[in-house]
Amino acid sequence: MRSGSSNFSRAQVPWGLDLAAAWSWRFLVIVAAGYVILWTINRFALIAFPLAVALLLAALVSPMVRAARNVGVPRGLGSIFGVLLTVGVVGMLLTFAGQQVVNGTKELAGEVVKGLEKIRAWLRDGPLNASDSQINDYIGQVQAAITEWSKSGALSQAADLGTAIGNVTAGFFIVLFAMYFFLADGERIWTWIVRLAPRAARQHVDSSGRVAWVSLTQFVRATVIVALVDSVGVMLVAWWLDVPLVLALGVLVFLGAFVPMIGATVAGAVAVLVALVDQGPLTALFMLIGVIVVQQIEGNVLQPFLMGRFVSVHPLGVIVAIAAGLLTAGVAGALVAVPLVAAINAVVVHLAGKAEADEIAVTDAEEELLEPDEPDPGESGPRASGPDAPAPTAPEPAAPAEETR
Known about the structure:
It contains eleven helices and no strands. It is mainly alpha-helical. Helix 2 (45-70) packs across helix 3 and helix 2 (45-70) crosses helix 5. It is globular, with a radius of gyration of 32 Å.
């Protein structure tokens, strides 16, 4: 049995157990640190989530601000324009979608009533053969339960609604101000963060942060393009099938695409449900086929082409990240989880490649030390030998190799 070569207290501990214990306590420390970080973020979610949204929006708008600065526009003015443009686009989309929902509510409500009447007729004339009195009793029980639930929770619902409105308002202003400062003073903010690290690690911290920012920028751009293609595709299918609320469905699909794999699926299910209520099962089937085709084009063509090597995250990693985000911070956590994992993945790949390059450089330096000195071809005559000959001097070791040893 192999034993460790440390002090007497560890002399009888098997080497494998010693190694496993060393890995175990380090792993536990990492897990504990991660738990503390997640708990802190969840505790201050009212601040953390708006900052994360502002960072994502800044990553999307930063190329435009940089282009404006290259043509002579001051960075502060370009940042203000980027913030206003973002607010205007989001507000316009929500306004148009809201107007269409309001205009189509009456028509959709009538279709819902017709659908309920069809269900009632099926219950009466179908295999269940339920009587009108039984159906009315069931409907009355459901209505009574809903009424009782709404009365019992009216005050708490009103309080929760007021709290939610206050949180959304505060988060909106945090997003605006944070986005502006990320765009206008992002470089100075990052320089201050890098200075907090030890001097020996500042170069690695700086390069890792810039790689993470590039990955985040690529992810946001690709996600916006994918979301736009998804929404246009679903809107075209809905328009061709004469399904109502076309623009509202497009906005829902666009916003849902920012939660990969899950958001687009939920938005597509809503589109199929609207088609089922308004047009019937056959139209809903065609709508389902159209949604599946659009999502297959997105997943197999657009995402591999647009994401590239900067945000290459395995689908299993995406699912685990979304699940962890949902458990940690709900929908907000699911929205932020995938770009966070993409940035971490890019940093890990960057540091691993940097470590491999440093190891290769050290190996080359050691090989140069082991190579014998070749005689200078310009020298003439034999070298001096004997006791009077000068002693050969060993080459001085290179600094990187000495430090590595």
